[in-house]
Design brief:
Catalyzes the attachment of glycine to tRNA(Gly). It is an enzyme of class 6 (ligase). With 511 residues, the chain is an alpha+beta fold. The chain has 3 domains: 1-70 and 214-392, 2-Layer Sandwich (BirA Bifunctional Protein, domain 2), CATH 3.30.930.10; 86-194, Herpes Virus-1; 394-508, Anticodon-binding domain (Rossmann fold). The protein is built from 18 helices and 23 strands. A 7-stranded mixed sheet has the order 3-9-10-16-13-12-11. Strands 20-19-21-22-23 form a 5-stranded mixed sheet, with helices on both faces. It has a 3-stranded antiparallel sheet with strand order 5-4-6. A hairpin with a 4-residue loop joins strand 14 and strand 15 (363-365).
Length: 511
Amino acid sequence: MAQEDIFKKLVAHCKEYGYVFQSSEIYDGLGAVYDYGQMGVELKNNIKKYWWDSMVLLHENVVGLDSAIFMHPTIWKASGHVDAFNDPLIDNKDSKKRYRADVLIEDQLAKYEEKMNKEVAKAAKRFGESFDEKQFRETNPRVLANQEKWNNLHTRFSNALNDNDLAELKQIIEDEGIVCPISGSRNWTDVRQFNLMFSTEMGSTAEGASKIFLRPETAQGIFVNYLNVQKTGRMKIPFGIAQIGKAFRNEIVARQFIFRMREFEQMEMQFFVRPGSELDWFEKWKETRMKWHRALGFGDENYRFHEHEKLAHYANAAVDVEYKFPFGFKEVEGIHSRTDFDLSQHEQYSGKKIRYYDPELGESYVPFVVETSIGVDRMFLQVISASYCEEQLEKDTRVVLKLPPVLAPVKLAVMPLVKKDGLPEKAREIIDELKFDFNCQYDEKDSIGKRYRRQDAIGTPFCVTVDHQSAEDNTVTIRYRDTMEQERVAIADLGKIIGEQVSYKKLFGKL
């Protein structure tokens, strides 16, 4: 099945089973804005807990913060967002559709990569175990030709981004023959910059209102509270401040479901270090964050680091953690060495000293910062993408979300075999006992087979069936989602069996 078809099925599945809905759907929706349903909000909260506890519980020198969405407008001048928070946009004159010029070129690079990978895959199938991929890539004429095209395009693209050369970006699009996906034409406008911040007004009257912005990132809330946290928490460098919160960007080219939205949620940690040590910490946090992703068990080969083509104005090093979505490798987390740019800027614009006195060095300085920033919504989409499976069984096909049990919205479904003979009451007793520890669901509608399929589709890792034997010996049948195996266990042991599988402690042990 084509990857595009898989993605469409995934989006439909999210709606059908209460994970994600189009916002304002009864009014025909609002573009690039989504709501999380009853299952989605549970998964989202579990992802946030996994991140928060891995940051704050597992690191003695990382603490939390919850800053406001509305902030003083000068903050965004100091941070560079007013002047530099732009996307290079280009319009197709025939389709009247707008695109990000850099994304069009990145997609072209991905096409060259795909051509090379297809050649490698065909050769690997042909030669079997004796296949030497490295030698093939270095000698095959078709691979070498596409590699040369990739290298040339990559160099031009990188230079254009770093020089902020909008005319060159358009020239690359024209030279590569990149067409509009809608019209199929190459009738492009010039590339121009577009600021992504939403603005609004604050004040009791229209005349006295002042222009403020909805925050486009959560990081600045941490920076302007740096001294408050450091002093009240008696924090010693190195230390970090973690925050989860909403951010807003007026994405003109919002696409790929919840991958790129106008209202989204970020999980960010800013780590304050001594000047000169930032690149060492940058490498440490790269390793730490990649471990966090891989611990979920979605396959190490589906993750990679991607070095930035162009560094942001505040950074001296930057890398993305990318995951292989159905639409290709895309960013789920950014790790940046932000230098002392943000704190120095706020010191200058506010007129307040934002320094740290280092007792070991006997001097004061503006700390440098290493940032880890992950989108909750992208992480949500990654988890769903990695978990969605269609399995062909003997008699039918089952759709199953093989979510890591610790993240699954519902941990346990309890099902009476029939709706009589005291079995529903027995099932309710089990739920009343376990509901304080696990999110449980009672399910008595339809045949037991249909109920299993329904729970598979929402990703419930354990199904417990209460039958007539349960009333006699206090045992039940527990069914495991991924293997569909069943075993007879004592009701008294259910808490321990499930608890071991859904424990964050087990997940943290891999970190």
